[in-house]
Specification:
Layout: E1 8-15, E2 23-29, E3 32-38, E4 52-57, H1 58-62, H2 65-75, H3 77-87, H4 93-96, H5 99-106, H6 111-117, H7 122-128, H8 131-141, H9 147-156, H10 158-166, H11 175-188
Antiparallel strand pairs: 1-2, 2-3, 3-4
Length: 189
């Protein structure tokens, strides 16, 4: 499983909260947390100053409440919690799998499971709503795809083709799948 981990586990950057104009970067590697800060100022003595950089091994970061507080102020508590989780060695291997492999795994899931999975993260929402997964779903419900279906799918999208022509509404179907379809329609309008 360790081979799924890149050297850089997580990276984000952004401007500090107002009134500061400073720019920050957080990089988490397998072994350390790297914090960079660029001071942005109109003062001439600050121009051309190199960025400040702090590197800490994971254990040191876990014990540095000052650095954790700064990270939370700049990037928020969610990023802080994710950083702490990574520093403790808890990696989300499923999120790190290549899209092609995840799409193959998704092809074995039920529609209900796809609907639930799409609500777990932005990446899974995009994958679960991808044209590729919905084209495979349509193929699973019909004998083949005609040229007319291909043209219609280019205009409507494979997910709309499936729900418009192949999905039989089932009283036992979950609300999450219908909710996901509604969310997709709202987002695309």
């Amino acid at each position: 499983m360790a081979s799924l981990l890149n050297e850089i586990l997580f990276e984000t950057a952004g401007q500090g909260p107002p009134p500061s104009k400073d720019f920050y970067q957080l990089v988490i590697t397998r072994k350390e947390v790297i914090w960079r800060c660029w001071k942005i100022s109109i003062r001439t003595e600050s121009r051309g100053a190199p960025p400040g950089e702090t590197k800490q091994v994971h254990d040191d970061f876990l014990n540095d409440s000052r650095m954790q507080e700064l990270l939370a102020v700049v990037f928020g508590n969610r990023i802080l919690e994710y950083t702490l989780t990574l520093c403790r060695g808890h990696f989300d291997y499923l999120e790190r799998l290549p899209d092609k492999l995840l799409l193959k795994i998704l092809s074995y899931l039920s529609l209900q499971d796809i609907g639930h999975l799409s609500q777990t993260s932005n990446r899974f929402r995009k994958l679960c709503n991808s044209e590729e997964i919905w084209k495979k779903t349509v193929l699973g419900h019909c004998d083949g795809i005609t040229e007319h279906m291909e043209m219609l799918a280019k205009v409507m999208g494979w997910k709309k083709i499936f729900f418009g022509f192949y999905y039989e509404k089932n009283p036992d179907s979950t609300a999450s799948l219908a909710k996901e379809e509604d969310n997709t329609n709202t987002a695309s309008q």
